[in-house]
Amino acid sequence: MDAARADAHAHDEAHAHDDAHAHDHAHTPAHAAAGRAGHRDRHTSAPAALRAEGIVKRFGPTLALDEVRLTVRPGESHALVGRNGAGKSTLVGVVTGLHRPDAGEVTFDGDPAPAFGDTGAWRSRIACVHQKSMAVPDLTVAENLFLGDYGLDRGRRLINWRGLRRRARDLLAEYGVEVDPDTRAKDLPVEHRQFMEIARALSFGARLIVLDEPTAQLDARGIQRLFDKLRELREQGVAFLFISHHLQEVYELCTTVTVYRDARHVLTAPVAGLPKADLVAAMTGESAGAAGTWHAKPAGADSASAPAPGPVPEAVPGSRPGSAPGSAPDHRAGRSSAGRAEPVLTAEALALDGEFEALDLAVRPGEVLGLAGAAAIGTTALGDTLVGMRAATSGRIAVRGRPVRSGSVPHALDAGIGYVPEDRHRQGLVAGRSVAENATLTVTDQLGRWGAVLPSRTREFAQSMIESLDIKTRGPEQPVSGLSGGNQQKVVVARALARGPAVLVALRPTAGVDVTSKNALLGVVRRVADEGRAAVIVSDELDDLRVCDRVLALFHGRVVATFGSGWSDRELVAAMEGVGERE
Ligand SMILES: Nc1ncnc2c1ncn2[C@@H]1O[C@H](COP(=O)(O)OP(=O)(O)OP(=O)(O)O)[C@@H](O)[C@H]1O
Description:
By secondary structure, the protein is an alpha/beta fold. It is built from 21 helices and 20 strands. The strands form four sheets. Strands 6-7-8-3-9-10 form a six-stranded mixed β-sheet, sandwiched between helices. One of its GO terms (molecular function) is ATP binding.
């Protein structure tokens, strides 16, 4: 057992016996707030808002939860963290009445959980605000708030629309949510949609809300407003279970953290005083490696300075428009000659009306270019345009000097542009198909003669991807729908790499990916460039951008600043927020 593991083990031991033990140390502001709000703490034996004990859940041969436990106190912000596939979503499914556990017990405020299938009773106990909207897009906020609950009209055939709107306004006001009840859900910014769903949950009586990666689609200001709102509600005794891969957010918002690893509970501890390295060690079972030192050595130095950049999976033979990893005589050739070499990807006067203004780009061999900016202000549209998802209003794109037809994904693929889309559910994966089939979707023409896909080649190729990207799956044959969210994202990246692209364009590639896999994925992107190809990362995640050699910050569809690799978080964030000064 190494030191870190021993450390994590010590934590396990310290906290394994009784979750409540962790709370002995947790006299945090939240607990004080809960006390002020009239909520008894454990010393006056208040029952837990949620207690799950000995939960077991299997999906076929997969043991997703192995006798895990979780206790959330009234008015507490409790983080549940763990690597992709650790069992977090499955636990949420169990405690929200979505999955029936194979064993174990769930109680709310000391009462047994409602009967399986009694949705009304479950939602008066607990609600989950998902990453993806659960609202009906074409209905207004008021209609969504009271969907399936026309209580004010019970016994009447007609819905009292005016009453509904008034009640919606009262409800939103009660929780301090400033959203117009007449807005259609599809027109709401993500942040307001989340507020609406929180208000809806509270209106059913729930005092415990699960937030599943709530900040995934918010910009920095949106995150602050969300956190302010959550703190305010916590003061009123509302408890939160916060699922996140952003550990700094766990430290900022939560008072207690529980870690699951490989379907098991490994740690529950107060957040204050828990070193981040210990938390990561508990998640991974090993000591945390140095992260984020992508540019530790000057350009042209040996690439060994980057943290654990796993090997880029071998692309399917004969499939690569880009240079083959093995064929690049000098793996660092790209970076060292980045200034001179012909660009791999160019865009000239590229523009898309309403999204971004005419801009020029040149990404050279060995270079990772970052396009930084919130999704809402043109960066996603720019990424989509580079990969053919959207047709530019004007301008040209070329790969190694060869023009690429605008607005055609197949043409972009043939030209050597590999694409990691942002929304893996909509654009990334075919749910019913296996990991192997999904990973090779872009190369089926290379996997057998005359269009026949040879299962053995598909499997072999998928297996190498599974190993290189550390995809947690039962094997290449498992349907992707059975993978955890983060592991699905890795399959999307595998698919983009399958063709050995000349340039890899990745939109927020690490969204939903755990802390260790994030480094592995970014390492793969880095290596694509180090092998003499090129990469573009479109993101507002600072960790994604750290791997870039050059970052262009966009604000309202315009490049407002350019950074080399030595930027500080503050100056890059300021540029993305439109208040930067560096050009
Ligand atoms: N519907 C399902 N069918 C089969 N296996 C499943 C299903 N849902 C989850 N699993 C398996 O259960 C395990 C736990 O998955 P879960 O989604 O709970 O992980 P997670 O911790 O939420 O991961 P992530 O951070 O990637 O979302 C994984 O091995 C996953 O493959």
